[in-house]
Design brief:
Length: 332
């Protein structure tokens, strides 16, 4: 006998937003298919489920696995089709753009962008049958880029553009495509960033660490503190549930602590926004580490340290001393 429930697929449901969303949609009465990377995560999810939930092993970069899972879902839903697809699977990457290894950059794009499109393509015939909805989990980073967050923000900007294109292209079939933009959320990504920070000195190498080590550490300290006090993933799951059930859903939904504040700040003129970001993350001032003259012909004598414009005394050009000088300047 065909299943009479509405059906939803949630990718990346092992932890965090994906897990919270799978359980929330399950409580809402959906029969949920949740994709995970490990058996233990699937078993844990099933035990916590308040209703119908099946877990399936899938890596969004593995086209064979994507096709296999899509076949299993199609065999179950039949002609009724798929009501909701939540593209949540993703990873973070925090590196200076100058230093980021290109293989890692391509790897995270493969998951955060290519993987989302591969999954969407696999399920679109089923979604079209049900005139269903596609929910993309983006980030507030698609509106405002943080220092050393360029690689991840680039992927989220790409996902936002693809979401806009899909929304327009799929409208003739009444398929709604919705973007969720979370801000500060307490997930295991905090632990990942903490590990990245601890490994950064080795990964950057001596020269890279001399250039960016202090600024990167300052950024990570502020970011970790903010994320630790962020919203629970359930807050994002509640927004997704609202988007799924709304008769006329919005094209974008903000979610989580500080999301509205950051969305407002993102509209500021670039010079003002740059000053705010430098101040918040305690970054060096423009030109504070420069060794040669700028566009107006100012120069620094070769081999001599630049002079502090406030005191006239020699000033070190190391990132750490530049940070200290910047902090002193703001206190005066």
């Amino acid at each position: 006998m065909p299943c009479s429930a509405r059906h939803a697929v949630v990718t990346g449901a092992s932890t965090g937003i994906g897990r919270a969303t799978a359980l929330r949609l399950c409580r809402d009465g959906f029969h949920v298919f949740a994709t995970v990377r490990r058996d233990t995560d699937g078993q844990s999810l099933r035990q916590a489920a308040p209703g119908q939930l099946d877990w399936l092993l899938m890596d969004v970069t593995d086209t064979d696995q994507i096709a296999e899972v899509a076949r299993a879902v199609r065999d179950h839903v039949g002609p009724a089709g798929l009501d909701v697809l939540v593209n949540n699977a993703g990873v973070g990457l925090a590196w200076p753009v100058e230093l980021v290894p290109l293989d890692r950059f391509r790897w995270q794009f493969g998951i955060n962008v290519d993987g989302q499109i591969a999954v969407t393509q696999a399920y679109l015939p089923m979604i079209r049958q049900a005139a269903g909805r596609i929910v993309m989990i983006g980030s507030i980073g698609d509106r405002i880029t943080m220092p050393f967050g360029g690689p991840l923000a680039a992927a989220k900007h790409a996902l936002r553009s693809l979401t806009d294109a899909l929304r327009l292209e799929l409208a003739p079939w009444n398929i709604r495509v919705i973007l969720i933009e979370p801000a500060s959320i307490r997930t295991n990504a905090i632990d990942k960033l903490d590990r990245d920070v601890k490994a950064a000195e080795h990964d950057f190498g001596p020269d890279g660490w001399a250039l960016y080590g202090d600024a990167f550490t300052h950024m990570a300290t502020r970011a970790l503190a903010r994320e630790a006090h962020g919203s629970h993933p359930d807050a994002v799951a509640a927004v997704i549930s609202r988007a799924v059930h709304a008769a006329q859903p919005k094209t974008r939904y903000l979610a989580g602590k500080d999301a509205r504040l950051l969305a407002t700040v993102a509209r500021l003129p670039a010079p003002v926004l740059d000053r705010l970001r430098r101040r918040f993350f305690d970054l060096p001032r423009p030109g504070s580490a420069a060794r040669t003259g700028g566009a107006r012909g100012r120069s620094v004598t070769a081999g001599a340290p630049p002079r502090d414009t406030r005191t006239g005394s020699p000033r070190s050009t190391s990132p750490r001393s530049a940070l200290a000088a910047d902090a002193d300047a703001r206190r005066t």
